[in-house]
Specification:
- 34% of the residues lie in helices and 26% in strands.
- By secondary structure, the protein is an alpha+beta fold.
- It has two domains: 118 residues, no CATH class; 88 residues, no CATH class.
- Strands 1, 2, 3, 4, 5 and 11 form a six-stranded antiparallel sheet that branches. A three-stranded antiparallel sheet has the order 6-10-9. A two-stranded antiparallel sheet has the order 7-8.
Length: 225
């Protein structure tokens, strides 16, 4: 099975400042059959490599190497679609390094920069959210997309259809799809989904779908037999 989202994700990347970059990581997961070293077994994955994508040209130049590393390590490439600022990340990393020194944990310094990249979206940018859908049909996913567009947001409102422009893209995953959205009323989404009889969802499924991920990576590439 191959999940290749390079073309789709490329169309979503925007660079508006010299400090803008997107955080991309190649992750080997125990769930995918990866051999995880003892030191990584608590979280069940290890990072093969991190990339800091600063332009579309750089993104294009990395494609073949990213695919190669994924295939060699039975790993997945993930990218966070919320842009980062190199300046803001550097400032937060500097604070984190100082804390390590104060707490006598300097041996953990190699982990700092990537950790900060993972938790520091660019200030002032409207974040892209992810609604994670597994094991549903295309028609069911389309129904959920329509329900998301029924939820209040700051996006354009179409009074004719009583819908907001909340959907950005649908990114295929191994078992389903990541619906990439603008921010919307998440409580309203849950209420609407609970009343949507045609989907016949269990309470557990509703809980999983409505646990919206507000700054998480999405799948860029995975190739497995």
């Amino acid at each position: 099975m191959i999940v290749d989202n390079f073309d789709l994700i490329r169309s979503l990347l925007k660079f508006e400042d010299k400090n803008d970059f997107y955080f991309l990581q190649i992750i080997q997961r125990k769930k995918d059959g990866g051999i995880i070293p003892q030191c990584n077994r608590n979280n069940g994955y290890r990072t093969i490599r991190s990339y800091y994508i600063r332009s579309l040209e750089e993104f294009d130049s990395r494609i073949e190497r990213i695919k190669q590393l994924c295939e060699q390590n039975n790993a997945r490439a993930y990218i966070n679609l919320n842009v980062r600022s190199a300046k803001e990340v550097a400032l937060e990393a500097a604070k984190a390094y100082i804390d390590l020194v104060r707490e006598d944990r300097c041996y953990q310094g190699h982990r700092v920069y990537d950790h900060i990249c993972g938790i520091t979206p660019k200030m002032g940018n409207k974040k892209k959210w992810i609604v994670d859908i597994d094991d549903l049909t295309k028609d069911e996913v389309d129904v959920i997309c329509k329900k998301i567009c029924k939820c209040r947001s700051e996006r354009h409102y179409n009074a004719v259809n009583d819908m907001y422009d909340n959907i950005i893209a649908k990114i295929p995953t191994v078992h389903g799809v990541h619906i990439i959205t603008h921010g919307f009323d998440a409580k309203m989404f849950r209420d609407i989904l609970e009343r949507t009889i045609v989907l016949d969802l269990t309470q557990e499924q509703i809980k999983e779908i409505t646990t919206v991920k507000k700054d998480n990576p999405t799948l860029l590439y995975f190739h497995t037999i």
